[in-house]
Amino acid sequence: MDYKKVAKEINDALGENNIQAAAHCATRLRLVLKDQAKVNQKALDAIDEVKGTFEANHQFQIIIGAGDVNNVYDELIQLTGTKEASTDDLKAVAQSGKKQNPFMSLIKVLSDIFVPIVPALVAGGLLMAINNVLTAQDLFGPQSVIEMYPNLKDVTSIINLLASAPFAFLPILVGFSATRRFGGNPYLGAAMAMAMVMPELVNGYSVANAVAEGTMPYWNIFGLNIAQAGYQGSVLPVLAVSWILANLEKFFHKRLLNAFDYTFTPMLAIIITGFLTFVVVGPVMQAVGDSLTAGLSWLYQTTGAIGLGIFGLFYSPIVITGLHQSFPAIETSLLADVARTGGTFIFPVASMANVGQGAATLAIMLLTKNTKQKSLATSASISALLGITEPAIFGVNLKLKFPFICGMIAAGISSMFIGFFHVLAIALGPASVIGFISITPNQIPFFMIGILISLLVGFTTTYLYGKKHAYLLASEELETDDVPSVAKEGGTCDRRSNRRSCFW
User: Fold this and answer.
1) Residues tagged active-site
2) CA within 20 to 30 Å of 195's CA: 95, 203, 330, 403, which one?
3) 484 burial level (CB within 10 Å; 0-12, 13-18, 19+)
4) Model pTM greater than 0.85?
């Protein structure tokens, strides 16, 4: 890819001096534009390297793809002289002067906190899945792999150690990320989270048993009994603690002189937050978190296959709104105590939805003869089948509408199927055709059947509907005189819009 050429073409299509701020994520250029009316959408669509565009959260986003977007971004910054910005900086620019939706603001906060730590959770989750494959009974025979090959026992032990670490010390990851998001010192956030998982405390997974058995130790502080409970695997308590810590830190920064500020602000913020954590915040938020997890488990167990089918049907629209960014907070709670929850139902549903959209895009790849669209659909379908759906959803399916709907239907049917067989994930991983590694071993066959159902339904419905109606809107404009010749090639064309309205 000629990054400088692509950057120039994008800048020309956006309009001269029209970029107010620019950042990028893993796959997209994220831009705040001065005037979106200046954008030449037709010119953008004609750039082969651009896999799609959309507007969300007052940002104009251009899908380039992983591995290329950062290089295009560098060239665009150099070309326009725009100051480099982080995604947080860009959000501040985009939202300045605009009224915030409180619910969407909360979703964005959760996204900002959990997205950076997802790689650690995915790494731990996949290692946990490997450990489960090695230790599961009846997966490859009556004995587990390590029973058949005892020399792998210590290897499995190390894998289990590495897999458990991100979840056992999850509060430290969340504390660091959340405190930074709330404007505090992330290292103080990590230090406070470390206090919440100290070995001297009763392990978070054993707190309920210790209370029930009457063996919970307590601190006696001025006549107040404070449980010595740990918060291993917790999410909500450390989120609240991080917010309190960050705001206390800001409070003291404003009121202490420089010399005293550097010395005493960290100490005062930690000690006050620490007492609030173990006396009030921790127990209350832990109860809320347990109730939320129990509620979700109850909803899943009560609604069963039908409820999961509805969730699968609407999962892709949820992705469009960005609400799915809040799911890691829920999934980590479910996965942190697999023995009690059984695992998470969200990951399997996400896999069905991603495969459904990928299958629909694959059908478009076979149907269209538009060169750019075929190229985009080819790469986007592979990406979606491997768990990254942005190019497929925004670059192909949403523009054509019916492939997106067909993908939704495929996800709904396949999610209902896996719901019937109670398929759960015991780890995070790629929500895709290879997601089986994160599934409870004895449920892997049902997961793979679900994937096959989503693939077949998504592909078949899209292909048959598209073949019958043949009104895929191609990207290029046609001259009026060209319309009859196009129609003769077998497609149905719309003279009123003067655009090619057919596959062919």
Assistant:
1) 25
2) 330
3) exposed
4) no
